[in-house]
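Slide 14.
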Amino acid sequence: MADERRTGMRVVGGRGSTAAETGTTSAINKAFTALRLLRASPAPVTVTALAKGVGVAASSAHAILGHLVSEGAVVQLPDKRYTLGPALFHLGASFAAGTPVYRSMWLELGQIANELGVTAAVAVPWDGHHLVLNAHAGGPTDIAVPFGGRIPLAASSWGKVYYGWSGQPVPATLPRYTERSITDRGALIAESTEARSRGYAVDEGEYADEVGGVCAAVTSADGYEGLASLIAPLDRLHELGTDALGRRLAGLASRASLALGDGERVRFFGSR
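Slide 15: predicted structure.
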């Protein structure tokens, strides 16, 4: 419509919402609030606690949970508490497997992790964080990257890659995670620029003590898609050779990016 003004994904102005649409939206919002509360809770949750968290009466919370249970999105335990259900994993796994960064390189990245005894991870930007699509430990390690977990956008080599390739501005204020974290905006910009120039970024214990890694961007004809990372204890990282590991990951990311339509990441010998 000519009088509609679009801001992001939301239409501002134009046709007003009907009462039915408003009610449906409210119900969906409440259902997602309940799901997020269950996701954030370290233990199953009671109806009373969910009602308080969602801001509805216990009867309304029970009705919401009943619908979610019927769809498999929530499971009711024998003690009448609730937890997330298998339908969410089914849907989420389909999302992860369908992303360009996952389907273009995950199998080969996992093989490298197995060969070198390090941990591999792929992630995409979402909700102000990197969303971990998958992670695989290639050998005995005490480093766990949570599948479906989130890493802050500016953290370690992941932040350097994100700001180096996404075109997004580096925040004025950067948090400190360890003594080695980069908290100066200018320094992070410089590291991001260097990462883009050489094809990969390095983490020397900047997000977790004594843990480091290398990270590379995966791009397509549409731009930045996500990242791939190899993570290990710092002594193992140095034993393997940070530069050699980074160049190997950068080569894999470049080939994946070429397959996704970004021909700028690979140098061709001869005419195409």
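Speaker note: The radius of gyration is 22 Å.
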